[in-house]
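ATP-binding protein: structure tokens wanted.
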Amino acid sequence: MINSFEKSNLWQLTLGLADNEDIERLRNSYFDFRRKIEPLVKNIEFEIPGLTIHDISHIDSLWEVADQIIGENYYLNPIEAYVLGGSFLLHDAAHVSAAYNGGFTALKERDEWKDLISLKYNNIEPEKNSELEKRALFEIVRQLHAKQARNLIQQSWKSETNQNYYFLIADEEIRDYYSEIIGEIAESHHWSAKKVNDSFSNRVINPPAFFKSTNWEVDPLKIAFILRTTDASHIDSRRAPTYAFNILTPQGLSKDHWHFQNKLGRAKLVDGENLRVSSGSSFNENERNAWWLAFDTARMINRELKDANSFLIESGRPPLAAKSVLGAESPKSFSKYVLANNWEPEDISVHVSNLPRLISTLGGKALYGENKYVALRELIQNGFDAIIAARNLGYLESFEGHITIQLNKIDNESWMLNISDNGLGMSRYVLSDVLLDFGKSLWNHDTVRYEHPKLAQTGFSSIGQFGIGFYSAFMISNHVKIITHRYKLKSDESNSHWKLTFPNGLEERPFISKPNEQEELKKHGTTISLRIENETLNDLLIPEEEEEEKEIISEEKMQGKLKKIIKWIFPACEIDIYLITKEKTEKIISANDWLEISDIDLLRRIHNKSKEKKLYPLKVNGRTVGRLRITSHYYFLINEYPPLIVSYKGARAGQIYGLDGLCLSFENNEKAERNDALPNYPLESWIDWAREIVSSESMLSIDLLLKLHILLPNDDLNVWFISNKRCSLSDIKNLLISSDEILFHIGDLEYDDDDSVRKTDFERDLMLENNVIVSHSNSVYHFHEAFTFDKVIEKYNLPRVSYAEKLEDLIKEIWGDFEEKEEYEVIGLVNNTEIMRRVTKYSKVTFK
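Answer:
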């Protein structure tokens, strides 16, 4: 029985020809190859559920689809047809476990699997046979199948019948001569069109000596482009037959793929150059998603055809017959061939008519406010990410990597700011497609698995996460230039040095070029250069309180201001930062030097100016994560007591009132403004920190000791008063031993309108009786929406200290039985005038 593919024009003009020994040999080899592949691909629908049909019927159909791609003319010779047929057979064969040594289970030992699990599954292995595992296997096999197909053709299998080893191509001479190119072409169907062209445009394989025909050369470029366009164009119902559709019941996006292909007829070449894709039945309103997927697929085929023909013509090869897909230019045109019923397939999706304005708005003031220093922070942090990624991949040692900054005056109107890192650098693809894709972060996108294999599994966590930080550059400059040198040449690119230029901000199209010899970076990394006008630089570096200095713009002075603001932005920097001037190269921040510099130097760094205060280390598992002290945070003292700065990966990222100093956050910001980072430490760390403070400063102010007391409820702190003297419970114990009656007042003693004295006299001259004990209140102050130390402690749900209970426990210990009454009593005098307050009166009970 004749196979369907043998009826194709391509087969009949090549491997179907009779009376030729060489063709007979090739034909027999192909039939044997096909016979071995058939049981392999038969398992795809069971092992990778959801895929449209990838079995032998799909492979056989490609011969007929190829007729529509290359037309009726003689385009390939018999050996080229054999190589194409071999790549047809091979290209999807690695979708099954038998294609991998150790099966799918062995894939879990590969770096690609580890990267996937780290990036998408939070580094937690899905349970065996779970839906999550099936989804992960689907992704990893789709990623690896093309590359593995190339290996399959060199692989041998042991026959269980006769214990002999066999190959997919049994003919040893044909296998030795052509298997390598067949495998490479099969793999190439997952490459970019550019990589296909770069890999094959200069390669032609001469006829082998073992064939009698001497003019059958093999042109891999033609074959590779036929494979990719033919495979892309096979989207008819043979790939999604109705019976299989009903039995397999694919879900999600796979269901839409099955749905639209189930409705389509065979692609047909019309007018000698256009590929027509059409449906037999129309798509109803509830089938809209499938229709749009069909349209997107048609546009993809259209791009593939145009790219293929462009590269073929450029290299002097004859183009394919099919030049484009009818209707691919618009949904309305496409609906003439793939019908929509009772709805209009107009492209009315959400779009942005003025993209530069949107980006400049969202990537600038609307997101970050008027704080121009954000541009410095975002651009330097991008460098940090690149350096840390290079360390994780082993291209830098753990102690290597640095940022260098230069600021030089160009003329009387402008300056040039250069920010450089020696991190990974960027490929052309990242520079043009990822960096310029507003809102797309390389580090959090699937692209990173292909761009930097093994990085995700190292536990790398970027600072950048929103894909918009770079655009903050346009807050301070309209002329931006990026020069980058990737750590190693990417396989599908011809150069590792690239330059991206924005000649007029976001108003004019940027362009990519190769840097000249003087511009090229000697080592891997990236330099971003920004031309900044005088006024903008003044706003960036000179704060409002120093307005009078804005007329003094000497290069040396501005470099000093830049040095100061860099330290302010990155108080706990984990990477060395250098400032390069004409005179010298100065290390302005050493990695993690915040742990070693003096208290006053650290406070000056984070606040620009500060009074000298003692800071106390806060540790987690022996590691210092903060240097801080407790302060007042009354709203009217906000300027006198600046907040604690919270740092995430070196940069200031949050603040807490009621504390001063610096501490680290281990979690990234939830907002792009990077102002909401908070510490998340074990309670024990806060307790140890508080205990060190109270042991060093036992007479710390009452209000601060009260706030620390909640962390140290069993410690006897000097938070009490006997008469007008601060004391501890130990001092009260001595009073109880010598007294039979005491008066206890809870809360601050404040002036009352009923007092027969002036307020000023009350506050200055009140003298309490010797048996009056006062416990001040621990007040919680909230102002604006600032985060305070009280809120930090609240999350631990600690019980508030009951000073009445503490006092009563002590009274019972010393007196035994006692009486308790709430009464108005004289508690003291103001210039011989009695002052009365409601107090608790404790009296010792004595038995006669």
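The first strand starts at residue 156 and ends at 158. The chain has five domains: 1-193, 235-351, 356-591, 602-681, 702-848.

Cheers.
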